[in-house]
Design goal:
Blueprint lengths: L3 E6 L3 H12 L1 H8 L3 E7 L3 H5 L6 E3 L2 H5 L6 E4 L7 H10 L3 E4 L2 H17 L4 E2 L10 H8 L5 E7 L2 H13 L3 H10 L8 H4 L2 H15 L9 E2 L7 H9 L2 E12 L2 E12 L11 E8 L3 E8 L3 H17 L31 E11 L4 H11 L4 E6 L8 H6 L3 E8 L2 E2 H12 L9 E5 L4
Parallel strand pairs: 1-2, 1-4, 2-3, 4-5, 5-6, 8-10, 10-17
Antiparallel strand pairs: 7-9, 7-11, 9-10, 11-12, 13-15, 13-16, 13-17, 14-15
Helix pairs in contact: 1-13, 5-6, 6-11, 8-9
The structure holds NADPH dihydro-nicotinamide-adenine-dinucleotide phosphate and L-homoserine.
Length: about 450
Amino acid sequence: MKPVKIGLLGLGTVGQGVANILTRNAAEIERRTGRPVQVVSAAVRNQGKAEALQLGLRVTTDAVSVVNDPEIDIICEAIGGDDPALSLIEQALSNGKHVITANKALIAVHGNALLSLARDNKVVLAFESSVAGGIPIIKALREGLAANQIEWIAGIINGTGNFILSEMAEKGRDFSDVLQEAQNLGYAEADPTFDVEGIDAAHKLTIMASVAFGMPLQFDAVYTEGISAITREDVGFAEELGYRIKHLGVARKRSDGIEMRVHPTLIPEKRLLANVNGVMNAVLVSGDAVGPTLYYGPGAGSEPTGSSLVADIIDVVRTFDADPVHRVPSLGFQHDALTDYTMLDTADYQSAYYLRLQVLDQPGVMANVTSIFGDLGISIEAILQKEPEASQDDNASVSGAVEVPIILLTRRVREGLIEQAIERVQALESLVQPVVRLRVESLS
Ligand code: NDP
Ligand code: HSE
C-alpha cells in the first residue's frame, strides 16, 4: 500500500524522538496501521546541525515548503512557541493536511480557532503529546473514560518542575543547579520560567479540563502559581506534618462552576501522587462511574514524548479513509455540544491551607492568631509551634524578640475567607514576616 508521508517541523528533542521511533518501529507501526509510515522531510533553523544527525531525511530551513509539499500527508509540529508554529499549522490545515503537535502553549491559547479550522478542512488536529509527555492521558479522558462524568483531575504535569522539587527534597540540591540539569536533559521549555512559574502546567491543565468537562479551551481562566518561592524550611515542616509538596494542576467541576488552578500543594505522603518523583508525571482522574484512576509515566523527554506523537500519527492513519464525522471528536465531545461553564472566581475556590507564621515568641500570640480563625469560622486541623532556634541569644529571649514559626493546617475553606484571615494575621504586631500560604489537597 502507498506509504503515508510525514513532514516534521523541528528536529530537536521531540522531533528526533519521532524520527527515531518511526524508523526503529516501522514494521510494528505498519502492522498497526496497514500502511508504511515514513518521515520524508524536516524543517529546522540550523541545517548543518540537523544533517549531522544523519537521519536519512530531506532537511530544509524553509518550513513553509514542507507544509506546502503536496507529497506530505501529515505534519508533525515540534518547533514550539507561537511564531512561526501557528502560521505553519494554519497553512498545513488549510492545505488539507492532518497536523499532530506537541505544542501545548499553542493549543491552550489558539486551540479553539485551530480546531475549527481543522473541522472546516475535514482534517485532524491531534495533541496527545502536548500533555504529560508519554502518558496517554488525552486518550484516557476522551475515550477510556467516556462513560463518566469527570468530577476532578489533579496532576503533576510538568516534568522539569517535579524533577527540581524531587532533587531539592531528596538530595538538598540547589534550585538553579537542578534547573540547569533539566535543561541539559531536554526537559525544560525554551523559556524555563514556563516550567517553574507554572505556565506550562497551566497550558496542559487547560487542555485536560476541556477534554474532561467538554468545554472550550480557556487558558485565561487558570489561576497559576509557581514553585520558585518554595523553601527547604516549608518542605521540612510539610514532612513533619506527614505531607510532601508537589506542583499540582487541579481542575474541578462543581455544581456552581469550574475551578482550574496550578500551585505548589501539600499532599499526604501516603498518596501515590506524593511519591511521583523526578521527571515522572502522574494524573489522578475521578469519574462518577469509575471512581479515582491514576495515570503515571515520563512527563518529558525525546522518545517518551515521541511515543505520544507517533500514537497520534497511527490514530490519524487508521481513520484516513473514514468520513470525518466518524472520527473521535478532538475534545472528546461533539463540537456543538461544548458547554461554556461558569469559571469560578479565585475567591470561591475551595481548599485546605498550610500557613506558616513567623512571630515573636511573646505571651498571647497564639491566642490572638487562633481567635482570628475562630471569628471567621475557619477550623484548624493542626498546629505546630516550633522551639526558638538555639542560635537566638538569651537577651532576645528575655526582651521577647525571639522569633518562632507557627504552622497551621486548616480544614477546607473558601479562598476568600482565608485571604481575610491572612490579612488580619498580617496586621498583628508580633508577626515578623509575610504569612506563607500553601494549599493542601487530601485527594480522597
Ligand atoms: P527543541 O528546542 O529541542 O527543538 C526545536 C526544534 O525546532 C529545533 O530543531 C529547531 O531547529 C526547530 N526550529 C526552531 N525554530 C524554527 C523555525 N523558525 N523554523 C524551523 N525550525 C525551527 O524543542 P523541543 O523538541 O524540546 O520542544 C518542541 C515542542 O515540543 C515544544 O512545543 C515543547 O513545548 C513540546 N514538548 C517538549 C517536550 C520535551 O520533553 N522537550 C515534551 C512535550 C512537549 P534548530 O535546532 O536548528 O534550532
Ligand atoms: N517542559 C515540559 C516539562 C516538557 O518539563 O514537563 C513536557 O511537556
